[in-house]
UniProtKB/TrEMBL annotation:
Entry keyword set: Membrane, Transmembrane, Transmembrane helix
Composition-biased stretches (Low complexity): 17-39
UniProt region (Disordered), positions on chain: 1-85
Compositionally skewed regions (Basic and acidic residues) per UniProt: 73-85
Transmembrane intervals: 120-142, 174-196, 208-226, 235-257, 277-300, 320-341, 361-383, 404-420, 426-447, 504-526
Top-level lineage group: Eukaryota
Protein name: Amino acid transporter transmembrane domain-containing protein
Acidic residues composition bias: residue spans: 60-72
Species this protein is from: Sistotremastrum suecicum HHB10207 ss-3
Amino acid sequence: MAAVAQPGDAPLRIQTSSQPSSSAHPDSPTSSPSPNSASRLILVQEDDEFRDSPSSVPQFEEDSDEDDDDDDGRSSHDDHFISQDHRPLSPLRTLLYLIAPALRLGAFLLPFLSSTRLAITLPCLLVSVLLTALVRHIWLLLARYVKRATVEEVCSEALAKMSNSPGWRGFIKVLIRVGGTALAFLISLVYLRVAIISLLPLLPESPHMRPILAAIILFLLIPLVAPPSHISSNLLFATSLTSCILYVAWFSVLLHSKVVDSLTYDETMRFVGISGLWDSLTCSLFAYGSFSPLQLYVSLSAHRTPTLGVATRMKRRTSFTVLSLVASIVSLAFTLPLIFVHPPTEPLATSTPVDDTLPKVLRALRALILFLSIPEVFTNLPFLPRIPASFPLPALLRRPHPQFFPRGLLLILISFATLIPTSLSYILSSVLLILSIIASYLFPALLHIIHHNLLRPTAIVVPASRSRAHLMAGDGEDDSDALLFAKELALQRRRFGRRVMWDIAAWALLAGAILWIVGRIVHWWWL
């Protein structure tokens, strides 16, 4: 009989060694081993590659000193980890979802930075790519450290321990869901508005063309985003892949237009009304920023874990860290040339007819890319409150998934919001820039600091219920407990240097994000 103990990030297995089993002694009974057989603990060392493998993350164990159950008695892991994040995702799809966020609205803003000095724009672009890769790894380390697979769980582990209130953990989860819903709403709103404005010059002029176009796009989006789809769904993969292919086409047409000097003034991006350092830094950070990659990370880990639960070694060439680096390089390759494009910043005063075929193609491709990007944004949307049974709703609308109707209402609200005036749209776009950068860069750095600097450190191999006094007191297991504690100290010393390095990076990221927010608000309000 063998028992495996995995407290925290356990790098070893504790097995119980007993006398030979009945199969070695034919005369012994086969039903059960001898009750007088002596047993002892054997510490089996695991190799570093297996211990540090991301495939161990799906095998999360609940801490013995914490109550993570929700009000209904079910474990939070059963609600968020097993039912949603346990679906496997291949490395190819993971790489696609890591690249796709950088090939959207943020990339469309980069050509308009060409009026800024290249000595400012180029460093901002490179720093943004490095910060994005850094933040992805911080999320990965947080998931391993707290043994949680969703943003809600990671945040609740960090913030719920700072208060003894019993309902604080649930309040934190609700707050994270509201924030995630608001951010997804703003991103979808700006995407849809820019797509509509891009298509308007291609259609006949009419005062009713914008609401008609919004209604048509709403009709096309409902079957794509109203039914909740997981990151591993084929429909989401098809829309994301098509979006990336269309971006490559847009990228090629834009460079060709630059070569043949056929670029024209484009008023779609007029909400980018800042200049100087904050303009370049803001657009660069927004271009590469994205939601938390925990869903991708856990799904990729589930792809490496067989159904029977036996962990397998992850190949280094397809690990999440390697895929993140490859995604950063590919994203940079398809966005860096954009800062060398110089589109006109105002309409050209000329009587000579200009061939506007390529500008129309660019507008159409941009609208299609943003349209196909909305389903992936809705994938990161948390579960919305269900419609009460007492609400007068036809049975036809209650038959689909419970999230179908709330998501449909949210999509209708987004479509109506696209009709707001341009002045209000500028404010919403600025709010989106600030919130997205806070969620992408400041938030993970703050969580890292809370977990590693403000809360009690988590043991690696020693169970949290065992204190040092208990280990050293001697309760009949002096040898095994002392060995566990010595192993704990050795692992803590070995990881101390890396933890200090990541602490410095998190503090620097937090300070830079706060400085950016203060400067952005000051520039927005007073300059």
